[in-house]
Amino acid sequence: MTTLARATDALTRDALTVLQPGFAGTTAPDWLLRRLGEGLASVALFGRNVTSPEQVAALTAQLRAEREDVLVAIDEEGGDVTRLEVRTGSSFPGNHALGAVDDVGLTREVAAALGRRLADSGVNFNWAPSADVNSNPDNPVIGVRAFGADTDLVARHTAAYVTGMQSAGVATCTKHFPGHGDTGIDSHHAVPLIDVGADVLAARDLVPFRAAVAAGSRAVMSAHILVPALDPDRPATLSRRILTELLRGELGYDGLIVTDGIEMRAIAGTYGIERGTALAIAAGADAICVGGGLSDEDTVRRLSDALVEAVRSGELPEERLADAAERVRSLSRWTTANRPGARPEDTADGDVGLRAARRALRVTAAEDFTPLTGAPYVAAFTPVANIAVGDETPWGVAAELGRLLPGTETGSFSGPDAGAEALAAADGRRVVAVVRDEHRHPWMAAALDALLAARPDTVVVEMGVPRAEPRGSLHLATHGAARVCGLAAAEAVVGTGR
What we know:
Blueprint: H1 2-17, E1 19-20, H2 30-38, E2 42-45, H3 53-66, E3 71-74, H4 95-101, H5 104-120, E4 125-126, H6 151-166, E5 171-177, H7 198-205, H8 207-215, E6 219-222, H9 240-250, E7 256-258, H10 265-268, H11 273-283, E8 288-289, H12 297-313, H13 318-337, H14 347-360, E9 362-365, E10 377-381, H15 398-404, E11 409-413, H16 418-426, E12 431-435, H17 442-454, E13 459-462, E14 474-477, H18 483-494
Protein backbone atom coordinates (compact mmCIF):
# COMPACT_ATOMS: atom_id res chain seq x y z
CA MET A 1 0.00 0.00 0.00
CA THR A 2 2.85 2.35 0.82
CA THR A 3 4.51 1.56 -2.51
CA LEU A 4 1.28 2.39 -4.36
CA ALA A 5 0.97 5.68 -2.48
CA ARG A 6 4.51 6.66 -3.45
CA ALA A 7 3.85 5.69 -7.08
CA THR A 8 0.63 7.67 -7.14
CA ASP A 9 2.37 10.68 -5.62
CA ALA A 10 5.14 10.50 -8.24
CA LEU A 11 2.55 10.26 -11.00
CA THR A 12 0.69 13.31 -9.71
CA ARG A 13 3.92 15.30 -9.36
CA ASP A 14 4.88 14.43 -12.94
CA ALA A 15 1.44 15.51 -14.14
CA LEU A 16 1.82 18.86 -12.38
CA THR A 17 5.41 19.25 -13.59
CA VAL A 18 4.44 19.30 -17.27
CA LEU A 19 1.86 22.08 -16.89
CA GLN A 20 2.66 25.75 -17.51
CA PRO A 21 -0.37 27.55 -16.04
CA GLY A 22 -1.18 31.20 -15.66
CA PHE A 23 -3.05 32.99 -12.91
CA ALA A 24 -4.88 36.24 -12.25
CA GLY A 25 -3.40 39.16 -10.31
CA THR A 26 -0.06 40.79 -9.71
CA THR A 27 0.93 38.65 -6.74
CA ALA A 28 0.95 34.87 -6.58
CA PRO A 29 -2.31 33.42 -5.19
CA ASP A 30 -2.19 30.88 -2.39
CA TRP A 31 -3.31 28.03 -4.63
CA LEU A 32 -0.39 28.61 -7.01
CA LEU A 33 2.18 28.62 -4.21
CA ARG A 34 0.64 25.43 -2.82
CA ARG A 35 0.80 23.72 -6.21
CA LEU A 36 4.46 24.69 -6.55
CA GLY A 37 5.06 22.78 -3.34
CA GLU A 38 3.16 19.79 -4.76
CA GLY A 39 5.21 19.53 -7.96
CA LEU A 40 4.22 22.34 -10.32
CA ALA A 41 7.46 23.42 -11.99
CA SER A 42 6.41 26.30 -14.26
CA VAL A 43 4.36 29.46 -14.02
CA ALA A 44 3.27 31.60 -16.96
CA LEU A 45 3.04 35.39 -16.86
CA PHE A 46 0.73 37.42 -19.09
CA GLY A 47 -0.09 41.09 -19.38
CA ARG A 48 -2.66 40.81 -16.61
CA ASN A 49 0.18 39.98 -14.19
CA VAL A 50 2.34 42.99 -15.01
CA THR A 51 2.30 46.58 -13.79
CA SER A 52 6.01 47.46 -13.59
CA PRO A 53 9.45 45.82 -13.72
CA GLU A 54 9.75 46.17 -9.95
CA GLN A 55 6.40 44.46 -9.41
CA VAL A 56 7.36 41.57 -11.71
CA ALA A 57 10.67 41.16 -9.87
CA ALA A 58 8.82 41.00 -6.56
CA LEU A 59 6.36 38.47 -8.00
CA THR A 60 9.07 36.17 -9.35
CA ALA A 61 10.92 36.41 -6.02
CA GLN A 62 7.69 35.33 -4.31
CA LEU A 63 7.50 32.30 -6.62
CA ARG A 64 11.17 31.38 -6.04
CA ALA A 65 10.73 31.57 -2.29
CA GLU A 66 8.37 28.62 -2.73
CA ARG A 67 10.39 26.80 -5.41
CA GLU A 68 13.85 28.07 -6.24
CA ASP A 69 14.13 26.34 -9.62
CA VAL A 70 10.70 27.36 -10.95
CA LEU A 71 10.47 28.15 -14.65
CA VAL A 72 8.86 31.57 -15.05
CA ALA A 73 7.61 31.79 -18.63
CA ILE A 74 6.37 34.79 -20.59
CA ASP A 75 5.27 35.60 -24.14
CA GLU A 76 7.64 38.51 -24.77
CA GLU A 77 8.41 38.75 -28.46
CA GLY A 78 9.07 42.48 -28.38
CA GLY A 79 7.39 44.54 -31.08
CA ASP A 80 3.63 44.09 -31.25
CA VAL A 81 3.56 41.21 -28.75
CA THR A 82 4.77 42.49 -25.38
CA ARG A 83 3.81 41.56 -21.84
CA LEU A 84 6.51 43.39 -19.89
CA GLU A 85 5.44 46.67 -21.50
CA VAL A 86 1.84 45.77 -22.21
CA ARG A 87 0.49 49.18 -21.18
CA THR A 88 3.11 51.38 -22.83
CA GLY A 89 4.29 49.53 -25.92
CA SER A 90 7.62 47.81 -26.36
CA SER A 91 11.06 49.40 -26.15
CA PHE A 92 12.21 46.88 -28.78
CA PRO A 93 11.06 46.50 -32.38
CA GLY A 94 9.67 43.12 -33.35
CA ASN A 95 10.91 40.50 -35.74
CA HIS A 96 9.69 42.11 -38.96
CA ALA A 97 11.59 45.31 -38.26
CA LEU A 98 14.75 43.34 -37.49
CA GLY A 99 14.29 41.34 -40.67
CA ALA A 100 13.89 44.56 -42.65
CA VAL A 101 17.27 45.77 -41.38
CA ASP A 102 18.78 42.31 -41.97
CA ASP A 103 21.74 42.75 -39.66
CA VAL A 104 22.12 39.54 -37.63
CA GLY A 105 24.46 41.31 -35.23
CA LEU A 106 21.72 43.83 -34.47
CA THR A 107 19.14 41.06 -34.00
CA ARG A 108 21.49 39.30 -31.59
CA GLU A 109 22.08 42.57 -29.72
CA VAL A 110 18.35 43.34 -29.43
CA ALA A 111 17.55 39.81 -28.23
CA ALA A 112 20.33 39.94 -25.65
CA ALA A 113 19.11 43.30 -24.32
CA LEU A 114 15.53 42.03 -24.13
CA GLY A 115 16.81 38.89 -22.42
CA ARG A 116 18.59 40.98 -19.80
CA ARG A 117 15.36 42.88 -19.15
CA LEU A 118 13.57 39.58 -18.61
CA ALA A 119 16.34 38.19 -16.41
CA ASP A 120 16.37 41.36 -14.29
CA SER A 121 12.65 40.79 -13.67
CA GLY A 122 13.22 37.16 -12.71
CA VAL A 123 11.83 35.66 -15.93
CA ASN A 124 13.93 32.77 -17.27
CA PHE A 125 11.83 31.26 -20.10
CA ASN A 126 10.54 33.17 -23.12
CA TRP A 127 8.01 31.80 -25.60
CA ALA A 128 9.90 33.42 -28.48
CA PRO A 129 11.10 33.83 -31.18
CA SER A 130 8.62 33.20 -33.96
CA ALA A 131 10.48 31.28 -36.65
CA ASP A 132 7.50 31.27 -39.02
CA VAL A 133 8.10 32.19 -42.66
CA ASN A 134 5.31 34.66 -43.44
CA SER A 135 4.68 33.21 -46.90
CA ASN A 136 0.96 34.05 -46.86
CA PRO A 137 0.62 37.86 -46.89
CA ASP A 138 -2.99 37.55 -45.66
CA ASN A 139 -1.91 35.65 -42.55
CA PRO A 140 -4.09 37.08 -39.75
CA VAL A 141 -1.95 36.05 -36.78
CA ILE A 142 1.75 36.07 -37.78
CA GLY A 143 2.47 39.08 -40.02
CA VAL A 144 5.00 41.41 -38.36
CA ARG A 145 5.73 38.72 -35.77
CA ALA A 146 7.81 36.98 -38.47
CA PHE A 147 11.24 38.15 -39.57
CA GLY A 148 9.91 38.06 -43.13
CA ALA A 149 8.82 35.94 -46.07
CA ASP A 150 12.28 34.79 -47.16
CA THR A 151 13.28 31.44 -45.71
CA ASP A 152 17.01 32.07 -45.42
CA LEU A 153 16.49 35.49 -43.84
CA VAL A 154 14.12 34.02 -41.25
CA ALA A 155 16.56 31.21 -40.51
CA ARG A 156 19.61 33.40 -39.88
CA HIS A 157 17.70 35.86 -37.70
CA THR A 158 16.03 33.07 -35.73
CA ALA A 159 19.46 31.67 -34.90
CA ALA A 160 20.77 35.12 -33.96
CA TYR A 161 17.78 35.77 -31.69
CA VAL A 162 18.20 32.41 -29.93
CA THR A 163 21.91 33.05 -29.39
CA GLY A 164 21.36 36.58 -28.12
CA MET A 165 18.57 35.86 -25.68
CA GLN A 166 20.13 32.72 -24.25
CA SER A 167 23.36 34.64 -23.64
CA ALA A 168 21.34 36.46 -20.97
CA GLY A 169 20.41 33.17 -19.28
CA VAL A 170 16.83 33.19 -20.60
CA ALA A 171 15.74 30.02 -22.40
CA THR A 172 14.12 30.59 -25.79
CA CYS A 173 11.12 28.70 -27.12
CA THR A 174 11.19 28.82 -30.91
CA LYS A 175 7.70 28.74 -32.43
CA HIS A 176 5.33 27.67 -34.06
CA PHE A 177 6.54 24.25 -35.28
CA PRO A 178 6.34 23.11 -38.07
CA GLY A 179 5.57 26.67 -39.25
CA HIS A 180 2.48 28.88 -38.98
CA GLY A 181 3.35 31.31 -41.77
CA ASP A 182 1.26 29.91 -44.62
CA THR A 183 -2.12 30.13 -42.89
CA GLY A 184 -5.20 32.23 -43.50
CA ILE A 185 -6.84 31.31 -40.19
CA ASP A 186 -5.85 32.20 -36.63
CA SER A 187 -5.46 29.02 -34.54
CA HIS A 188 -6.84 30.92 -31.57
CA HIS A 189 -10.20 30.50 -33.32
CA ALA A 190 -10.05 27.34 -35.48
CA VAL A 191 -7.67 24.73 -36.94
CA PRO A 192 -5.64 26.23 -39.82
CA LEU A 193 -4.75 24.00 -42.77
CA ILE A 194 -1.40 24.12 -44.56
CA ASP A 195 -1.96 22.08 -47.69
CA VAL A 196 1.41 21.99 -49.42
CA GLY A 197 3.78 19.14 -50.19
CA ALA A 198 6.42 17.79 -47.86
CA ASP A 199 9.10 19.10 -50.22
CA VAL A 200 7.79 22.67 -49.86
CA LEU A 201 7.66 22.33 -46.09
CA ALA A 202 11.21 20.99 -45.95
CA ALA A 203 12.61 23.75 -48.16
CA ARG A 204 10.60 26.60 -46.68
CA ASP A 205 9.05 26.15 -43.24
CA LEU A 206 11.42 23.71 -41.54
CA VAL A 207 14.65 25.52 -42.41
CA PRO A 208 14.38 28.15 -39.62
CA PHE A 209 13.65 25.44 -37.07
CA ARG A 210 16.73 23.54 -38.15
CA ALA A 211 18.66 26.77 -37.61
CA ALA A 212 17.13 27.18 -34.15
CA VAL A 213 18.06 23.61 -33.22
CA ALA A 214 21.61 24.18 -34.43
CA ALA A 215 21.77 27.41 -32.38
CA GLY A 216 20.78 25.50 -29.25
CA SER A 217 17.22 26.70 -28.63
CA ARG A 218 16.28 25.16 -25.28
CA ALA A 219 12.62 24.77 -26.26
CA VAL A 220 10.36 24.57 -29.32
CA MET A 221 6.64 25.37 -29.35
CA SER A 222 4.21 23.33 -31.44
CA ALA A 223 1.49 24.86 -33.61
CA HIS A 224 -2.18 23.89 -33.61
CA ILE A 225 -2.16 23.49 -37.38
CA LEU A 226 -3.15 20.60 -39.65
CA VAL A 227 -0.46 19.71 -42.18
CA PRO A 228 -1.77 16.77 -44.26
CA ALA A 229 1.60 16.15 -45.94
CA LEU A 230 2.98 15.33 -42.50
CA ASP A 231 -0.11 13.99 -40.70
CA PRO A 232 -3.55 14.01 -42.35
CA ASP A 233 -5.40 13.25 -39.13
CA ARG A 234 -4.13 15.35 -36.25
CA PRO A 235 -2.82 18.90 -35.77
CA ALA A 236 0.89 19.21 -35.07
CA THR A 237 0.45 19.62 -31.30
CA LEU A 238 -1.23 16.20 -31.12
CA SER A 239 0.80 14.45 -33.81
CA ARG A 240 3.43 11.86 -32.98
CA ARG A 241 4.57 11.92 -36.60
CA ILE A 242 5.35 15.63 -36.34
CA LEU A 243 6.63 15.99 -32.77
CA THR A 244 8.43 12.69 -32.26
CA GLU A 245 9.30 11.38 -35.71
CA LEU A 246 10.01 14.72 -37.43
CA LEU A 247 11.18 17.13 -34.73
CA ARG A 248 12.95 14.62 -32.48
CA GLY A 249 13.92 12.11 -35.15
CA GLU A 250 14.65 13.91 -38.39
CA LEU A 251 15.69 17.28 -36.96
CA GLY A 252 17.57 15.67 -34.07
CA TYR A 253 16.05 17.96 -31.45
CA ASP A 254 16.53 16.93 -27.82
CA GLY A 255 15.21 19.92 -25.85
CA LEU A 256 11.80 20.73 -24.41
CA ILE A 257 8.71 20.64 -26.63
CA VAL A 258 5.97 22.99 -25.44
CA THR A 259 2.45 23.25 -26.82
CA ASP A 260 0.88 26.49 -27.89
CA GLY A 261 -1.97 27.52 -25.58
CA ILE A 262 -4.02 24.37 -25.04
CA GLU A 263 -7.17 26.44 -24.48
CA MET A 264 -7.02 27.89 -28.00
CA ARG A 265 -10.09 26.90 -30.02
CA ALA A 266 -8.06 24.80 -32.47
CA ILE A 267 -7.62 22.26 -29.64
CA ALA A 268 -10.25 23.16 -27.05
CA GLY A 269 -13.02 23.35 -29.64
CA THR A 270 -12.23 20.01 -31.27
CA TYR A 271 -10.70 17.75 -28.62
CA GLY A 272 -11.32 19.56 -25.34
CA ILE A 273 -8.47 20.69 -23.11
CA GLU A 274 -8.31 17.51 -21.01
CA ARG A 275 -8.13 15.09 -23.93
CA GLY A 276 -5.95 17.51 -25.89
CA THR A 277 -3.47 17.64 -23.01
CA ALA A 278 -3.19 13.86 -22.78
CA LEU A 279 -2.88 13.46 -26.55
CA ALA A 280 -0.19 16.15 -26.74
CA ILE A 281 2.01 14.50 -24.12
CA ALA A 282 1.48 11.10 -25.76
CA ALA A 283 2.50 12.59 -29.12
CA GLY A 284 5.79 13.86 -27.72
CA ALA A 285 5.11 17.25 -26.14
CA ASP A 286 6.77 17.78 -22.77
CA ALA A 287 4.93 20.81 -21.42
CA ILE A 288 1.42 22.19 -21.77
CA CYS A 289 1.06 25.95 -22.10
CA VAL A 290 -2.22 27.09 -20.54
CA GLY A 291 -3.42 30.29 -19.00
CA GLY A 292 -3.91 32.85 -21.74
CA GLY A 293 -7.65 32.45 -21.30
CA LEU A 294 -7.84 30.05 -18.36
CA SER A 295 -6.11 31.11 -15.18
CA ASP A 296 -7.54 29.27 -12.18
CA GLU A 297 -6.72 26.34 -9.95
CA ASP A 298 -9.60 24.29 -11.31
CA THR A 299 -7.93 24.25 -14.74
CA VAL A 300 -4.69 22.94 -13.21
CA ARG A 301 -6.61 20.27 -11.34
CA ARG A 302 -8.58 19.23 -14.43
CA LEU A 303 -5.47 18.89 -16.58
CA SER A 304 -3.33 17.10 -14.00
CA ASP A 305 -6.23 14.71 -13.28
CA ALA A 306 -6.64 14.10 -17.01
CA LEU A 307 -2.97 13.12 -17.32
CA VAL A 308 -3.14 10.78 -14.31
CA GLU A 309 -6.29 9.15 -15.67
CA ALA A 310 -4.74 8.79 -19.14
CA VAL A 311 -1.82 6.90 -17.59
CA ARG A 312 -4.12 4.67 -15.57
CA SER A 313 -6.30 3.89 -18.60
CA GLY A 314 -3.29 3.03 -20.75
CA GLU A 315 -3.84 5.89 -23.20
CA LEU A 316 -0.64 7.61 -22.06
CA PRO A 317 2.42 5.47 -21.20
CA GLU A 318 3.69 6.32 -17.74
CA GLU A 319 7.24 6.36 -19.12
CA ARG A 320 6.28 9.07 -21.62
CA LEU A 321 4.88 11.30 -18.87
CA ALA A 322 7.96 10.68 -16.73
CA ASP A 323 10.24 11.54 -19.67
CA ALA A 324 8.31 14.77 -20.30
CA ALA A 325 8.57 15.76 -16.63
CA GLU A 326 12.31 15.06 -16.63
CA ARG A 327 12.79 17.31 -19.66
CA VAL A 328 11.04 20.12 -17.78
CA ARG A 329 13.32 19.55 -14.79
CA SER A 330 16.34 19.52 -17.10
CA LEU A 331 15.42 22.95 -18.42
CA SER A 332 14.94 24.14 -14.84
CA ARG A 333 18.48 23.00 -14.06
CA TRP A 334 19.80 24.86 -17.12
CA THR A 335 18.13 28.12 -16.13
CA THR A 336 19.35 27.77 -12.55
CA ALA A 337 22.91 27.11 -13.70
CA ASN A 338 22.77 30.06 -16.13
CA ARG A 339 21.04 32.51 -13.81
CA PRO A 340 22.81 35.87 -14.28
CA GLY A 341 24.30 37.67 -11.35
CA ALA A 342 23.96 41.36 -10.60
CA ARG A 343 25.25 43.50 -13.44
CA PRO A 344 26.12 47.18 -13.71
CA GLU A 345 23.51 49.31 -15.39
CA ASP A 346 24.03 49.03 -19.15
CA THR A 347 22.92 52.24 -20.81
CA ALA A 348 23.20 50.58 -24.23
CA ASP A 349 20.17 48.44 -23.37
CA GLY A 350 18.12 51.60 -23.18
CA ASP A 351 18.70 52.71 -26.78
CA VAL A 352 19.38 49.57 -28.83
CA GLY A 353 15.67 49.17 -29.48
CA LEU A 354 15.29 52.72 -30.77
CA ARG A 355 18.45 52.41 -32.86
CA ALA A 356 17.00 49.28 -34.44
CA ALA A 357 13.61 50.92 -35.04
CA ARG A 358 15.27 53.89 -36.75
CA ARG A 359 17.22 51.57 -39.03
CA ALA A 360 14.06 49.63 -39.90
CA LEU A 361 12.16 52.75 -40.97
CA ARG A 362 11.57 52.96 -44.74
CA VAL A 363 10.98 56.55 -45.84
CA THR A 364 9.35 57.53 -49.15
CA ALA A 365 8.90 61.29 -49.49
CA ALA A 366 7.41 63.46 -52.20
CA GLU A 367 9.79 66.04 -53.66
CA ASP A 368 7.92 68.91 -52.04
CA PHE A 369 7.57 67.36 -48.57
CA THR A 370 8.76 69.49 -45.69
CA PRO A 371 8.79 68.30 -42.07
CA LEU A 372 5.79 69.23 -39.95
CA THR A 373 6.19 72.13 -37.57
CA GLY A 374 2.58 72.58 -36.48
CA ALA A 375 0.48 70.16 -34.45
CA PRO A 376 -1.29 67.72 -36.81
CA TYR A 377 -4.38 65.58 -36.52
CA VAL A 378 -3.48 61.87 -36.23
CA ALA A 379 -6.14 59.61 -37.76
CA ALA A 380 -5.62 56.00 -36.67
CA PHE A 381 -7.40 53.51 -38.93
CA THR A 382 -7.73 50.72 -36.41
CA PRO A 383 -8.24 47.05 -37.30
CA VAL A 384 -9.33 44.44 -34.77
CA ALA A 385 -6.20 43.15 -33.01
CA ASN A 386 -5.51 39.42 -33.06
CA ILE A 387 -5.50 37.64 -29.70
CA ALA A 388 -1.71 37.20 -29.62
CA VAL A 389 -1.22 40.97 -29.83
CA GLY A 390 -4.23 41.85 -27.69
CA ASP A 391 -5.98 45.20 -27.40
CA GLU A 392 -4.33 46.47 -24.21
CA THR A 393 -1.12 47.73 -25.78
CA PRO A 394 -1.18 51.24 -27.28
CA TRP A 395 0.18 51.70 -30.78
CA GLY A 396 0.56 54.46 -33.32
CA VAL A 397 2.41 57.77 -33.44
CA ALA A 398 0.02 60.16 -31.68
CA ALA A 399 1.65 60.00 -28.26
CA GLU A 400 5.15 60.45 -29.65
CA LEU A 401 4.08 63.26 -32.02
CA GLY A 402 2.29 64.93 -29.13
CA ARG A 403 5.57 65.16 -27.26
CA LEU A 404 7.37 66.58 -30.29
CA LEU A 405 4.48 68.79 -31.48
CA PRO A 406 2.36 69.83 -28.48
CA GLY A 407 -1.29 70.24 -29.36
CA THR A 408 -1.43 67.17 -31.59
CA GLU A 409 -4.90 65.64 -31.56
CA THR A 410 -5.97 62.13 -32.51
CA GLY A 411 -8.95 59.91 -33.21
CA SER A 412 -9.58 56.27 -34.10
CA PHE A 413 -11.66 55.28 -37.13
CA SER A 414 -12.85 52.10 -38.81
CA GLY A 415 -15.47 50.95 -41.27
CA PRO A 416 -16.73 52.17 -44.66
CA ASP A 417 -16.96 55.86 -43.67
CA ALA A 418 -13.61 56.02 -41.89
CA GLY A 419 -11.97 58.32 -44.44
CA ALA A 420 -14.74 60.91 -44.46
CA GLU A 421 -15.01 60.81 -40.67
CA ALA A 422 -11.28 61.35 -40.26
CA LEU A 423 -11.31 64.25 -42.73
CA ALA A 424 -14.15 65.92 -40.84
CA ALA A 425 -12.46 65.39 -37.48
CA ALA A 426 -9.21 66.91 -38.76
CA ASP A 427 -11.10 70.15 -39.49
CA GLY A 428 -8.48 71.53 -41.84
CA ARG A 429 -5.41 70.46 -39.86
CA ARG A 430 -2.56 68.54 -41.46
CA VAL A 431 -3.38 64.83 -41.29
CA VAL A 432 -1.11 61.97 -40.28
CA ALA A 433 -2.89 58.72 -41.18
CA VAL A 434 -1.77 55.60 -39.31
CA VAL A 435 -2.61 52.19 -40.76
CA ARG A 436 -1.80 48.60 -39.93
CA ASP A 437 -1.78 45.92 -42.66
CA GLU A 438 -3.66 48.05 -45.17
CA HIS A 439 -3.48 45.23 -47.74
CA ARG A 440 -5.61 42.98 -45.49
CA HIS A 441 -8.42 45.50 -44.90
CA PRO A 442 -10.29 46.86 -47.96
CA TRP A 443 -12.11 49.45 -45.82
CA MET A 444 -8.75 50.82 -44.71
CA ALA A 445 -7.46 51.16 -48.28
CA ALA A 446 -10.71 52.91 -49.23
CA ALA A 447 -10.36 55.27 -46.26
CA LEU A 448 -6.85 56.26 -47.35
CA ASP A 449 -8.05 56.75 -50.93
CA ALA A 450 -10.75 59.13 -49.74
CA LEU A 451 -8.41 60.99 -47.42
CA LEU A 452 -5.63 61.40 -49.97
CA ALA A 453 -8.05 62.53 -52.68
CA ALA A 454 -9.11 65.42 -50.46
CA ARG A 455 -5.77 66.01 -48.74
CA PRO A 456 -2.80 64.85 -50.86
CA ASP A 457 -0.46 66.40 -48.26
CA THR A 458 -1.43 63.63 -45.81
CA VAL A 459 1.43 61.75 -44.14
CA VAL A 460 0.91 57.97 -44.11
CA VAL A 461 2.48 55.75 -41.44
CA GLU A 462 2.22 52.00 -42.19
CA MET A 463 2.79 49.99 -39.00
CA GLY A 464 1.92 46.54 -40.32
CA VAL A 465 3.43 44.50 -43.14
CA PRO A 466 3.97 47.13 -45.88
CA ARG A 467 2.60 45.61 -49.07
CA ALA A 468 0.61 48.52 -50.48
CA GLU A 469 2.42 51.06 -52.66
CA PRO A 470 3.80 54.06 -50.76
CA ARG A 471 1.54 57.10 -51.05
CA GLY A 472 0.98 60.46 -49.46
CA SER A 473 3.39 63.38 -49.17
CA LEU A 474 5.44 61.21 -46.83
CA HIS A 475 5.10 57.45 -46.44
CA LEU A 476 6.76 55.74 -43.49
CA ALA A 477 6.91 51.95 -43.24
CA THR A 478 7.86 51.06 -39.66
CA HIS A 479 7.57 47.25 -40.02
CA GLY A 480 5.77 46.97 -36.70
CA ALA A 481 3.78 48.86 -34.07
CA ALA A 482 6.17 48.85 -31.10
CA ARG A 483 6.43 52.10 -29.15
CA VAL A 484 9.95 52.66 -30.49
CA CYS A 485 8.67 52.21 -34.06
CA GLY A 486 6.17 54.98 -33.38
CA LEU A 487 8.92 57.19 -31.99
CA ALA A 488 11.16 56.60 -35.02
CA ALA A 489 8.24 57.52 -37.31
CA ALA A 490 7.40 60.63 -35.30
CA GLU A 491 11.02 61.79 -35.56
CA ALA A 492 10.86 61.43 -39.35
CA VAL A 493 7.61 63.40 -39.54
CA VAL A 494 9.17 66.39 -37.78
CA GLY A 495 12.59 65.96 -39.37
CA THR A 496 14.60 65.03 -36.28
CA GLY A 497 15.30 61.36 -37.10
CA ARG A 498 18.82 60.10 -36.71
